[in-house]
Amino acid sequence: MDGGGATHLATLEEGRPSECVPPASLEANSLKKSSWGVLFTGIVGGTLVAVYAVATPFVTPALRRICLPFVPATTKQIENVVKMLECRRGPLVDIGSGDGRIVIAAAKEGFTAVGYELNPWLVWYSRYRARREGVQASARFYISDLWKVTFSQYSNVVIFGVPQMFDLFCGSKV
């Protein structure tokens, strides 16, 4: 027993392969498999986090007591708002401004216009569109809950939305 152990120890010290040491190709292959597993897990996890971050602001309004979804204004509806503003002066606020279409249209007509929206993605997109349209100086967008904003400084208030929104402000069915 003593002679066999000494031979094994001598083999390891000399750098020769022994029956107890796994071949290098097996170690490399197992390391490659482990790296692919970590990479795959990272990609799937990152994708899920990104989907969650993008989808949450669009899904959470449906989970509130009163559902207020994002519904983009049509061209005709924007034209009607602009037509109603023809003889008006003073700053304008759009409550639930969505992607900023009404605020940008009002800013193009010379109004100082502000939009309040809960969805941060829509606010960032609105700011980008205002910059692209060249009205970033007169069109501003804020991420805010409409119940936490004072509207007394605005002469023109636009509430474009679903009937539930009008019920909130008017207290009756429209």
UniProtKB/TrEMBL annotation:
Show the stretches that span the lipid bilayer: 36-55
Query: Sorted alphabetically, which InterPro entries does this protein's record hold?
Result: FAM173A/B (IPR026170), SAM-dependent_MTases_sf (IPR029063)
What keywords tag this UniProt record? Answer: Membrane, Methyltransferase, S-adenosyl-L-methionine, Transferase, Transmembrane, Transmembrane helix
| PANTHER family, A to Z | ATP SYNTHASE SUBUNIT C LYSINE N-METHYLTRANSFERASE, METHYLTRANSFERASE DOMAIN-CONTAINING PROTEIN
Family, according to the entry, reads as follows: Belongs to the ANT/ATPSC lysine N-methyltransferase family.
Identification of the protein by name: ATP synthase subunit C lysine N-methyltransferase isoform X5
